[in-house]
């Protein structure tokens, strides 16, 4: 488990070979959204066998247009890398933003077209199993 | 009595001579004072005596012997003193440089920076100073300042390459050191009026942030000492600070003028009634003064009377120039797509295609509204592309959200939308707004969002009001809510079906039968 200290956005990464989980705490906005993109881009580049990227959103504060733009970019990059993006534990505010902007389905749909579970419904059993299997990594896991 | 060292120092002081005749005044006075018992008592409390003998300075420590005679120990402290003086001068210079930096950086105005540089250089480094900026067109802007005088700006039509070192200094590349020039070779324009004969003159480049900021010319009169090596180094340190400030001012001026040009281009139009439909709009840019906003709106009147006018209101992701460029692109694209204004979905899809970019996912959300007068009502078609839904204010004061939804433009390959069609009766309005209003933070406790509910409640109190009053009312409430706090851009457009009075008109059911 590694931390990026920041007053406004904290990213905590826990990962296994096929799964990376990034916990988001704080605001995802104009001033720091790029850091999340950089963190994800780094993970995608460093882990060719990655299959799932989980962004834990429960601790997210304000998500502004730049924050949403970065989520869309992450979706695009994960799609290109063949990695499935999961926005887990979404807050009601995040869901509202995604609904108004018409991006909820795009960002949460599984590859076969069905939208994933709604906000707050938690993860599927498979994801939880992955979570239990997740092991903390050393400095090499730094985002 | 004397030892050998004293003999070298004061060769005239032989045993038996009177001290006052052979030693410097400061020493013999002290010697006399010491022999007076009153002052001898507290001599320990006094700081050591010091004074100059020949070219060196000494500290004198007396010790009174039992027989009443005094032995003076003279300690040479010349080097110590020189170091102290150097330290003092260094501190003064550092303080001066700090003052230079703070004075120069407090202004982002290039002219003011040149004035300050010339004045401070003239007052601290030379008898007169010239600050020369890189040529603008055929003329060189030159600020001249005499010591104790005021800086004066002039434009000289001269070739800088005629003055040795000046051309290179103004080009900024390759970096050149300060250059001494023959005072006799200095051109007339370089010498301030009434300056008198020049003793020394040095040209120092002003280094900027990768761009040449200009050159500093220092002049000293012939009766003033020429520049020492230390002073020249100091002048270069001064020039580095002045150059940084001047190039920052120049870059800022360029940026400010770009922003101003864009702002002029991006300012929303003033709205009025078009073909029997009332339009009113208001825009409050974010308090970030040097940032171009990301909100926009436009009203495109129908080309043919009886067809719908198109309103577009939107919000572009991000801030600054990138947002401004995207805003301009969207407004131009929508303008070009006006012939397709009947089909909102098609317009939005084409706009999306035009904006899609593989490098980034900067997007915009917007609402399209087509409004046409039908009888004394107004038919509306509303399409939201990822934008907060327009609000419909009914005559009763009820506020409804228009049933339209869709996907933002510029980031995803497909942008499905759903268009809402509805009718406004006379006195009813449709309100398009950006989230700068609902997300404005403030309120009695500060930090609370204005929010959808508060906006809807405020609107319901506006029932029957003309469109312009509704815009003003919403802007006022949002501004009050924010108070002194900062806020994002806020844009509102209100489309209203005018209240009508039936006229005792002559014929038909044309629009002419009603007044707005």
UniProtKB/TrEMBL annotation, chain A:
InterPro entries: MlaB-like_STAS (IPR058548), STAS_dom (IPR002645), STAS_dom_sf (IPR036513). It comes from the Bacteria. SUPFAM superfamilies: SpoIIaa-like. Residues 109-125 have a biased composition (Low complexity). CDD domains: STAS_anti-anti-sigma_factors. Residues 9-107 form the STAS domain. Residues 107-143 are annotated as: Disordered. This is STAS domain-containing protein.
UniProtKB/TrEMBL annotation, chain B:
InterPro entries: Bact_Sigma-Reg (IPR052016), GAF-like_dom_sf (IPR029016), PPM-type-like_dom_sf (IPR036457), PPM-type_phosphatase-like_dom (IPR001932). Residues 274-497 form the PPM-type phosphatase domain. Keywords: Hydrolase. Its EC number is 3.1.3.16. GO terms for molecular function: protein serine/threonine phosphatase activity. Signal peptide: none annotated. Pfam families: SpoIIE (PF07228). Gene3D superfamilies: 3.30.450.40, PPM-type phosphatase domain (3.60.40.10). Coiled coil: none annotated. This is PP2C family protein-serine/threonine phosphatase. It comes from Streptantibioticus silvisoli. The lineage of its organism: Bacteria, Bacillati, Actinomycetota, Actinomycetes, Kitasatosporales.
